[in-house]
Amino acid sequence: MTRRRPNLQGRLVRLHLIVLCAMTALLVGVQTAQLYGEARERLGERALTASRIVAKLPVVVQGTARGTQNAALNAQVNVLREEAGADFIVVGNARGIRLAHPVPERLGKPMEGGDNAQPLAGQEVVSVARGSLGLSVRGKVPVWAGGVPGTRVVGVVSTGYLMPQVWHLVGSALISLMPWFVLALGLGTVGAVWAARRLRAEILNLEPEQIAALARQQRAVLAALREGVLAVDAGGLVTLSSDRAVTLLGGQSAPAPLATLWPELALLTAGGAARTQNLELALRGEPVLANLEPLEGGGFVAGFRDRAEALALAEELTHARGFVDVLRAQTHEYQNRLHVLSGLLQLGRGEEALRVLNAEIHADAQFRQLLRDVQVPRLVALLAGKRERAQELGIDFQITEGSHLGPHWERHADTLVSAVGNLTENAFEALAGQPGLVTVTIGEDPDGMQVEVEDSGPGVPAALHDTLFDRGASSKGEGRGYGLHGVYSRVQGLGGSLRHTRRGPLTVFQLSLPQPLPHRPPEPAEVTA
C-alpha cells in the first residue's frame, strides 16, 4: 500500500515549521553564547572586585608576607567568601602555596589552574581554569608588600565562581526569553498556514505534482501542434513558443521581445490584443493567418499558420465535401432509377421500362458528348457529379455545346476543380431549392482558358458587390465565405482573374487563366570521358 503524500498546504506548513525551528534553535544558540559571555564577564568582574578587597586586608597582607599558615586569616577570608557569594576565595603566598581555602585539608598545598604567573608578576587577571573544586571563572590580583601597589608581590588572591553558576545564570535568562520564542513559533505557524492557503488559491488549488504534469502535457501539446503558438505577457515579452513557432520565426525562441521576433504583430497589439480569428499578417515576408486570444491580467496567446497551408487544407476539405455530395447524389439518383425500373417490371410494363432506360442512356451519352473535348479528366468527373447533384436538387444543369479544353491544362487541374466546384455549388445554393438553370461554359484561345458559370438565381447582394472575394465575405452566415476567397487567391497566384456580373436575368461568374508555361524537360546530365 503506497503512502499518500501530504498536500501542498501540509508540506508548506511542515517545511516552514522546520525552518522556523531551525532558526529558533540557531537564535537560542547565539543567545546562549552571548549570555554565557555576559555572565562570564559579569562574574569575572565580581570576582576581580572581591579579590581586590581581600588583597588590601591587613591580615592578608601580613599573612602573605610571612608566608605561613594562619587560622585567623583562613577564617576571615571564608567569612568574606560567604558574604560575596563566591564559590571560593583562595589566598596564596609568593610561591603559590595556599594560606586560605574553603577546604581546610587543602591548605598548605600549591594552588591549581596554572594561571598564577600574571598575578605574581603584578598584574590582575580574569581567567577560566580548572582548580581543585572544578572549572571556574576566577579573578586574581597580586598582594603587595605593605599593601602598597608597585612594591614587591608577596602573594596572590583568587576569587572564583564555578561554571555551574554561569550556566545557571544563562538558563535563567533563557527561561525568561522562552515565552517570546514560543510566541514567535506560534505566529510563524499561523503565518505559514495563511501563506500556504493563499499560495494554493493562486495556483488554482493544484498540487505541485499536478502542476508538473500539466507542464509536461503543455510541452507535449505544443510539440504536437502543426501551427505556431506564442504566449506574450503584458509587457510585450514572448514567454512561450512552440516548436512550430520557432521554425516559422527563423529559429528564434522565447524569452524575447515580441517587437524583435514579429514587429508587425507587436505594432498591431501595442494597445492591447482583442480576440481575433484568421487575421492576415506577414511574418518574415510570408503571409500567415493568426488567431489572437487575450489573457486575463494582460497579454495574449497567438496561434498562427502558413496561409498557403491553410488554403490547401481548406481546398482539400472542399474537395472531399464535394465528392461526398456527388457520391450521395449519384447513389440517390440511381436508387430512384432502379426503383422506377423495378416497379415497371413488376407491373409487367417492360417496354416502358426499356424506354426509361434508353432515355437515361441517351441523356448520359449526350452529356458525355458535350464534354468530349474537355480533356482534363478530373474536371469532367466533377461536372458529371454535379449533374447528378443538380438532378437531386431539381435543377437544370447544362454544359454549353462546344465546350473544350486541351490536355495541357491538366497541370492546373486542382485549381480548375476547386474553382468550378465552388462556383457551381454557389450557383446551386443561390437557387435556394427552387427550380432553375445552371450553365457551365468552358473554352480556350491562344491567350488562355475561360470558364463561365451562369445561374438564374437572384444574384449577388448589392452589399457584397465590392467585397465578394474577401475572406469571410458571405450572406450565408458565420463560418462561410472562405471557399470563394481561396479560389480567388489561387487564380490570382496563377496570373488569372475571377469576376462576376449580371447578364439579363442571369448571374455570371467568369474565370480566366493565362496559358500555362511550356513544360521544360530536365536537361540530360553531362557525360565526361
UniProtKB/TrEMBL annotation:
Keyword terms, alphabetized: Cell membrane, Kinase, Membrane, Phosphoprotein, Transferase, Transmembrane, Transmembrane helix, Two-component regulatory system
Domain of life according to the entry: Bacteria
InterPro entries: 2C_sensor_his_kinase (IPR050980), HATPase_C_sf (IPR036890), HATPase_dom (IPR003594), His_kinase_dom (IPR005467), sCache_3 (IPR033463), Sensor-like_sf (IPR029151), Sig_transdc_His_kin-like_C (IPR004358), SPOB_a (IPR039506)
One Gene Ontology CC term in the entry: plasma membrane
Membrane topology qualifier: Multi-pass membrane protein
Protein's name in the database: histidine kinase
Catalytic activity reported: ATP + protein L-histidine = ADP + protein N-phospho-L-histidine
Major location category of this protein: membrane
